[in-house]
Amino acid sequence: MVLFSLQRYGILGINARNLDYIFASNPRQLYRYADDKLETKKIAQSIGVSVPQTYGVISFQGEVRNFSKIVGEHKSFVVKPAHGSGGDGIVVISDVTDEGYRKASGSILKSGDLQYHIYNILSGMFSLGGQTDKAIIEYAVQFDPVFDEIAYQGVPDIRVIVYRGVPAMAMLRLPTRASDGKANLHRGGVGVGIDLSTGTTLAGIQKNRYIEKHPETGHPLCDRQIPHWQTILNMAAKLGDKTEFGYLGVDIVLDQQKGPLLLEINARPGLAIQIANQQGLIGRLKAIDHALPKLSGIPEKIAFAQEAFAVQASSINVLSDFCK
Asked: What does the pLDDT look like over 101-128, one tens digit per residue?
């Protein structure tokens, strides 16, 4: 009965996602581009997609002593595992003080504690499969003030699902107290659907429950315009087209000065985006399959997505009632 209901509403389940789209569309040899953030940066830069500046990479335990030199005069930065997933192992430093390194949450890390964390990254504590890893030290995004009212401490990001080079669905992911300032939904972050046609936010979800307002700030989530929307769609479509991933999640952040920056790509993107958009993916993916022979380039693919997947007037009315 549940399966019937999912199919009726076009909801893509995890088994169908894996068998029909990920396994069928994502060749195994391509996974390194998504699973290694350094490889992701290389391919993004090669096609003109902007990424946060890398200050340095620590590959071996003996190099941890060089950490302060890598950071230099930077007062804010991010330390992350090259092979991490789901936000695990990422530490965002917002300021360097006499007391130590101040995290985005406000807590202080002593120098020894941060170095110990880097040792843990190198040992593979946060990596896929527990393999030995590298620590990336990079620019800390200064998020666009457009999100001031609906974000808690951390940096929001935009997730775009790209299928065969065509944007299929998108959502805004917002950090909360429950998610420790990270935008990951499985940690308690908030997901907000986005109308692909306009870049306007729709309903919000937290832990698979619909919400009208951000749980910490109390501000409404609906009817907010995402800046640089066409650029974001172009970045996502470019990555889907150039990396040859057939089914891909593209995560983009908005920097106050630098505009849209690629955060990472995901070869196994989650399915909660359907709940945030109150619509299943299956219909959209089938529509892309049908239209693709007629779409010759990235601009045409984006134009098709924005026309075909625009939120209909009836849906807008329902969502407007929900957001009141």
From this structure: 998 778 899 999 999 999 999 999 999 7
H or E element in which residue 89 lies: none
Reported residue count of the chain is 324
β-bridge partners, 209: 206
State residue 178's pLDDT score: 66
- Please state, in angstroms and as integers, the Cα–Cα distance from residue 311 to each residue in 172, 199, 281, 304, 320, following that order: 16, 11, 14, 14, 12
- Segment holding 224, helix H or strand E: none
**pLDDT for residue 44 is more than 60:** yes
Distance of alpha carbon 147 from alpha carbon 187, whole angstroms: 19
CA distance 123 to 181: 25
What is the phi/psi pair of residue 311, to 5°? -70, 125
According to CATH, the superfamily of the domain at 2-49+144-323 is ATP-grasp fold, B domain (3.30.470.20)
Nearest to 264 by CA among 151, 148, 173: 173
Architecture of domain 54-138: 2-Layer Sandwich (3.30)
User: Domain coordinates of the chain in residue numbers?
Assistant: 2-49+144-323, 54-138
What percent of the chain shows pLDDT beyond 90? 68
| pLDDT range class, residue 320, cuts 50, 70, 90 | very low
Q: How far apart are the first and last CA of the chain?
A: 33
The pTM assigned to this predicted structure is: 0.90
| 209-211/108-109 β-pairing | unpaired
